[in-house]
Amino acid sequence: MEKERESGILLMNLSGAYEEQDFWREERSTWVRLEDLSGTNCYCDEAAVRAIREKIGEFTLSGIHFIDSGNYHYMTRIWMDKAKNPFSLLVFDNHTDMQPPAFGGLLSCGGWIADALESVELLDHVFLVGPDQSAFHQVQQVYKERVTFVSREDLQAARQTNSSSGVAASFLEMLSEYEKKTGKFSPVYLSVDKDVLNEQEVKTTWSQGDMSLTELKSCLEELQSFLKARKLPLQAADVCGEWEPENGGAGSPAGHDHANHELLEVLKGFDYEE
Question: Cβ distance 139 to 131 under 8 Å?
Fold first, then answer.
């Protein structure tokens, strides 16, 4: 039987990154210990997928998940299998994560959104914010038809128009235009990869975008208002893109600790699906 978490956060520990941080220490937190599980780095083999599903089997989807570095962003896809109602996926990421499957079709950090579009029946639509236009051009057309995309170039243009609120305004326009076009809007599963942020905010193991933490938070606050005005819940939220101690680190854990704390404070303000 699945167990609801009335409050607090869930930490999926694979690299040990969260043990170097403090943002979670005063929160009610649940740890999922996966650091000894093999077959998980960037690609997740079938045995590892089964083991992860077993580890999270007792939990409902609803809530806030911190899912380690971007190497494990496919965790979002695994959590999606717990959805009970139709939903839209909103992803902030510097990459499309829609690469064609490789290595026998293994679930991967670079292709998990494509996998979700192919196999998650309850997934209505994907909103993707952050990758550059050239990366999106490389996405297969069958996926593009179900994705609303705001590129890095779009965000740069919005920033030049209005430096203080242009990015958030562009993001809100994306949501509003989709609603106007389709006449509907589903509850949202939110996934944030911190590689969408610029390197002055945090440094990750992957190439990065140029959003500031303030811009990202403003977008999330706009999303919160948008959903609450429509009495729609957030199905779940997750954050990845951590600094990894084992590989020498791509950045200071203090920077990630600050970013996680700031993001968590915004995420706690959403209404989550019961």
Answer: no
What would be the CATH architecture of the domain defined by 9-267?
A: 3-Layer(aba) Sandwich (3.40)
What span, in angstroms and rounded, lies between the C-alpha atoms of 50 and 27?
29
Q: Which of 194, 201, 188 is nearest to 254 (CA)?
A: 201
What is the pairing mode between strands 107-108 and 43-44? Answer: antiparallel
- Residue 29, pLDDT > 90, answer yes
Residues 6+ apart with CB under 8 A from 79: 56, 61, 65, 236, 238
Domain boundaries defined on the chain = 9-267
Distance in angstroms (rounded) separating the CA atoms of residues 212 and 218? 10
Helix and strand totals (H; E) in the chain = 9, 10
pTM (global) more than 0.70: yes
Could you count the other beta carbons within 10 Å of the beta carbon of residue 248?
7
All residues at 6 or more sequence positions from 40 whose CB lies less than 8 Å from its CB, including other chains: 14, 34, 48, 52, 72
Structure tokens at 20: 């170097």
Angle at 216 (CA atoms; ends 79, 125), nearest 5 degrees: 45
For residue 209, CA distances in Å to 83, 158, 189 come to 30, 15, 22
Contacts of 25 (CB under 8 A, 6+ apart): none
One DSSP character per residue, 208-241 reads: ---B-HHHHHHHHHHHHHHHHHTT--EEEEEEE-
Tokens in use for 107?
């679930």
Question: Per residue in 131-169, pLDDT tens?
Answer: 999 999 999 999 999 999 999 999 999 999 877 689 999
